[in-house]
From TrEMBL, chains A, B:
Name of the protein in question: GNAT family acetyltransferase
SUPFAM superfamilies: Acyl-CoA N-acyltransferases (Nat) (SSF55729)
N-acetyltransferase domain residues: 7-153
RNA-binding is among the record's keywords: no
CDD domains to which the protein is assigned, alphabetical: NAT_SF
Amino acid sequence: MNEPSGLTIRPATEADLPAIVAMLADDPLGATRESPDDLAPYARALKRLTEDPHQHVVVAVRGERVVGTLQLTFVPGLSRRGSTRSIIEGVRIHADERGSGLGTRFIEWAVDRSREENCQLVQLTSDVSRTDAHRFYERLGFTPSHVGFKLQL
Amino acid sequence: MNEPSGLTIRPATEADLPAIVAMLADDPLGATRESPDDLAPYARALKRLTEDPHQHVVVAVRGERVVGTLQLTFVPGLSRRGSTRSIIEGVRIHADERGSGLGTRFIEWAVDRSREENCQLVQLTSDVSRTDAHRFYERLGFTPSHVGFKLQL
């Protein structure tokens, strides 16, 4: 998808992994859980993601530079009359691009893709500490209607 | 999976749909969004779910009777060093079985299956109004660390 601003949103490839993992790690929470010096586990995961038609790992590219990434997952279900929902995970925007409107365009892209797949619901969870992100999602029309529970295994 | 209590947890089939949809609708939130008199959309959704190796819609059966349902989804990802997480959705326990320990066994089953799939994280969201459910998940070790955002399309 080509944007008038010179922004392209396209599927991530293995060549994008150094930039993607650098963004995952350049984050107060991600810093402790990523390994930018060892890309092998990310390459294995990207291969599995690329083979799965319900998974869409994308990058936002400006010029030649990867400036954002997110993962959009389509999840069919029985509830709500057999509706499909989408889940947005792993949203990262390059530090240089924060405040540029890229985050808004990126989430709008994910919402548009979800509509195209006939999803009735888009959902995401955000760590309670990310209060700026919460205001951002509320501005985009998301409702903080749920508590997100996690269990580390 | 056979439990000593006479409980079996197994994949849902089309024959289970009347019981499953009745449980989805027998709920303060579900009552307004389900259609137990029209099973066709549920049958279509179950077919898609059954064909997807990352989706596991299961029922808990006691004797011949379906007494619970949940959906377990395995979601590979790039973050956390390419880790896979599982998502639990659509948990319903028959009204007659509430307080029987079935909910606990059911979530423990989902956590065990997630471990078998090498998931590093199990997650779920629960409507902010379901405060009893929140205490239940916290007792099982889940942390309410996230805000769950939804956007209806």
